[in-house]
Amino acid sequence: MRALTGSSPPRQRQSRAWLRLRLVALRAQKQATLSADVEHSPNAAKARGIDIVQITILGPRVDEPSRRPEAPESGENLVSIQQIANQLVEWCNAGKNFDVMRTMYTPDIVSVEADGQETSGQQAVIEKSERWAAANIINGQIVRGPYFNGPNQFAATFKFEVIRKATGKAETLEEVAVYTVQGDKISREQFFYEGDH
Predict the structure, then answer these.
(1) Cα dihedral angle (23, 24, 27, 31), rounded to 10 degrees?
(2) Which conformational region is residue 95 in: left (phi greater than 0), alpha (psi within -120 to 50 degrees), or beta?
(3) What is the pTM of this model?
(4) Environment class of residue 140 by beta-carbon count within 10 Å: exposed (0-12), middle (13-18) or buried (19+)?
């Protein structure tokens, strides 16, 4: 009698490995066949009791080439608009609005208010925002987004809880800001809101 050592004899180990490989091959073949059936005749697949949703979950067809993201064109920066937009939202939610302006704006940024008034230049835009901050006590700020539009624009919504220093009146201010990115910096911001800000 053989002692129980917990290991299988070599022939049994080989047959298990062969069975595993065969099972993988059969699954791949079945997936390819099912994908082809659904593509050519979804009704035939349903008649065989195959749920089309299950097939799409299985993955792409075996003979379908994989798609790779396109490489950036020459001159494009490696920093993505998603990274820039997410950093802006994160920093503003942390109250670091002026850090955004100092580090993420181009030197020739253009800022457009809802009334159409434009301010050009990074330092001028920072000074405009400093004047607004000095006229208000900011008790809270929530920034949502980003929301993307094409390859170089995104938007974020801002909600401020402020007290106007001139009147002592508490207000909730809401606005939409649309940003344009050039390279890896923000080159334009435009604000949309109701009333005075």
Answers:
(1) -170
(2) left
(3) 0.60
(4) exposed
